[in-house]
Amino acid sequence: MFNTSALSTQNINLERFRDQVLGCWTGKNIGGTLGAPFEGCRETNNVSFYVQNLSGEPEPNDDLDLQLIWLLAVEEQGLWHLNERILGEYWMNYIVAPWNEYGIGKTNIANGLMPPLSGACNNEQWKFSNGAWIRSEIWACLFPGSPDEAVHFAWQDACVDHCGEGIYAELFTAALESAAFVVSDLRELIAIGLSKIPATCRIARAVRLAITEFDRGSDWRDARESLVKDSADLGWFQAPANLGFTVLGLLYGNGDFGETICIAANCGDDTDCTAATTGAILGIILGRSGLPEKWTKPIGETIKTKAIDPFNANAPGTLEALTGRVIRQAKLAAQTNGTLPRLSDAKTAFSPEYLATLCDDEVARTRIWNRSSFEMRFEINCNLTLGIEYLNGPELKPGESCKLRFRTYPSSTDNRIVHVKPLVPEGWSATPNALSLICHHWRESEAFLELSAGNFEGPFQYIPVEIRLQDRFCPASIHLPIQQYHGVTAGVQNAFWDAPYRFASARLV
Fold first, then answer.
1. Can you point out the beta strands (E) in 423-475?
2. Where are the beta strands (DSSP E) in 259-359?
3. Exposed, middle or buried by CB within 10 Å (0-12, 13-18, 19+), for 203?
4. CA-CA distance, 488 to 491, in Å (whole number)?
5. Mean pLDDT, to the nearest integer, of 92-99?
């Protein structure tokens, strides 16, 4: 997705960019370490510095180490080839954390509910929670000063284990952080983040409430209580309130690094996430050179992981190594996409016209908000992208039916006919029993089919779908997963409620 509104004469000074990227990861490490001991606390805290005996090393932090897997995917697959399906495969191969939405996403993928269904299905408790927006810095660092590009990849990332508000939360943070490489005013950055999410969503509501409380002169503790009450219907560990706490830290901290991360942590709830994100944002704005030694010295320069495969992930061991690898990929992105700001030794320079586009909602509104969390996309013979959307979800009882939307996306060739035929098992039916669509190079085409369920052979029925392109004799095939009603138990729970971790599991009813 290229933003053609401003072919790039903009430039980011490479030395300054390196300082900002290193500051981002350092701030992430600092905030995550500060907030870790208080994670899950439902009361306000009174922390003013680290409470651990750190001995020059940070706390392990999934907020940072999950992003190391996305970096690996970028390096191995190429940035412009990434999509949510590829990220889902990297999640399966390298993420070992079993808790909450992480485990549910993996189990969904194992059962054939590929992203974005992996974040939308069997995930009622955690689909709006915090696991996605805490890992947005990688996209901001790869697309400095290009929030529309950052949010495109943030959507692909977040949908692996979230939907709805959980995705909007990462769009907000990715856009804000991307813009922070070229804009330092916090109110302006918050406005840019808001422009990339629907105005009516709960994330936007929480952010606006935090701004309102700050503007009316409320104490941050009173502002925090307003956010808690506003999000009470969603419960704890959910993105709207915690994004609100993050914004409170930014506003009430008034640019002071220590004050900002402490206020975020002192709001309670998912404290390592809120403090880590505020730390990363100010780390981008201030650069590593602007972070106080008081905060940097106790944690040193290493990266400690806990959520990823420690043997095969090729994870960088230090913040410097991570920064170097990210910058290498950011330079490749800028070299291969002429609309992105340049990264060079020249001075940082941005035109007022370009900066004005940072707050534009057109790309997000037309290309991202309308993406369904119930549509899986399949690449067929490198010539066709076929989307199949479950209009009322993939879960059925025997005798019930679901409506499916089949959609072809623009391809490099024109007016090629695509024939689609579900091969339903005995006792099942499809109406109509086959579809034909035209694949255009400039627009989408779509057709609908109703699938009626017979008996299930297990918790999932996998329906073969035969796909024939008009110029290919050999058909391609895919399998559509249909989940039996109540055939899956999402049993992953959070340790803070004194309940054991359990994987989501598919079981016979």
1. 429-431, 435-439, 445-452, 460-469
2. 342-344
3. buried
4. 9
5. 94
- For 162, the token pair is 């979230």
Q: Which positions ≥6 away from 185 have C-beta within 8 Å? A: none
pLDDT digits (tens, 9 = 90+) for 348-367: 999 999 999 999 999 999 99
Query: From residue 330, how far is each of 200, 216, 314 by CA, in Å?
Result: 33, 40, 19
d(CA 503, CA 488): 11
Amino acid at 169: A
Give the model confidence (pLDDT) of 105-148 as tens digits: 999 999 999 999 999 999 999 999 999 999 999 999 999 999 99
CB atoms within 10 A of CB 215: 10
Give the sheet arrangement for strand 384-390, strand by strand: 375-380, 384-390, 401-409, 445-452, 429-431
User: In this structure, what token pair is assigned to residue 75?
Assistant: 């390096």
Burial readout 480-495 (b: 16 or more C-beta within 10 A, e: otherwise): bbbbbeebbebbbbbe
Cβ atoms of 1 and 154 closer than 8 Å = no
Q: At what angle do helices 186-195 and 202-215 cross, to 10 degrees?
A: 160
Taking 80 as the threshold, does the pLDDT of residue 6 lie above it?
no
Please give the Cα distance from 205 to 198 (Å, whole number).
Answer: 10
d(CA 462, CA 112): 8
CA–CA gap between residue 292 and residue 27 (Å, rounded): 10
For residue 142 the two structure tokens come to: 């790869």
pLDDT, mean of residues 365-379: 95
d(CA 11, CA 33) in angstroms, rounded, equals 34
Is the pLDDT at 384 greater than 90? The verdict is no
